[in-house]
Amino acid sequence: MFLASIEKGFPSSGIYLSDKWALGKCPDVFLVSTKKITVSQKNDISNYNNYKYHRDIMPKYRVPKEVSAIARRALEYNRSLPPSRRAAQKVLEDGSRVDGTGIRTAKRLISGSIDADQMILMRAWFARHGESPMETKNRRDKTSKAAIAWALWGGTPGRSFVRRKLRELGL
Q1: Which of 13, 30, 53 is the last residue of a domain?
Q2: Cα-flanking dihedrals φ and ψ of residue 32, to 5°?
Q3: Do 22 and 74 belong together in one domain?
Q4: How far apart are CA 13 and CA 26, in angstroms?
Q5: CA max distance for the chain
Q6: Which of 12, 26, 27, 114 is the most exposed place for a label (fewest CB within 10 A)?
Q7: What are the tens digits of pLDDT across the range 93-118?
């Protein structure tokens, strides 16, 4: 296994990367960092906040069925709407639409397992959007973009699951 530094021009453990694109050419790379790390540190839980592990290295945690079901229903409902009413989509400069983070998160929740990095991302999203009085008001209308986005992230049960699991992991 190889370690790779994302910083331009710094070789690390035999791989020389000029930019992020090169990572796609190196299937054996299992983490990306601007810090040097030894192979013995790769499984240390304290490194989860600093490093992104390859999908086979990072442990996965089972998502409660209720959370998966909420994300599945939200994704199906969101797809049934006309593009202008969909939540979690980004409009590019050329006018095309791409899936946003909420859609990708819903797909991961539906798969039934997520890693610690995904839970940390979810905790941050819920912190930004959960306490906002305007968004809370908008979520009362279950067909609003705010309500759909909340459900794509697993809804209130998803927030509770993430808080509980990250507390267990000490993150």
Answers
A1: 53
A2: -125, 130
A3: no
A4: 13
A5: 55
A6: 27
A7: 998 889 999 999 999 999 999 999 99
- Please tell me whether residues 101 and 147 are part of one structural domain: yes
- Tens-digit pLDDT profile for residues 122-155: 999 999 998 888 888 989 999 999 999 999 999 9
Residues 98 and 160 in one domain: yes
- Which distant-in-sequence residues (6+ apart) come within 8 Å of 145 by Cβ? 85, 86, 87, 138
Q: Contact, 23 vs 29, CB < 8 A?
A: yes
Q: Quick one: tokens of 60?
A: 């996965």
Please state the domain count of the chain.
Answer: 2
Q: How confident is the model at residue 25 (pLDDT cuts 50, 70, 90)?
A: very low
Give the confidence band of 84 by pLDDT, cuts at 50, 70, 90.
Answer: confident
Of 86, 77, 161, the closest CA to residue 119 belongs to 161
pLDDT of residue 67: 97
Q: What pLDDT does 16 receive? A: 35
Given 53, 73, 90, which residue is the final one in a domain? 53
> Containing domain of residue 111, as a range?
60-169
Same domain, 66 and 149: yes
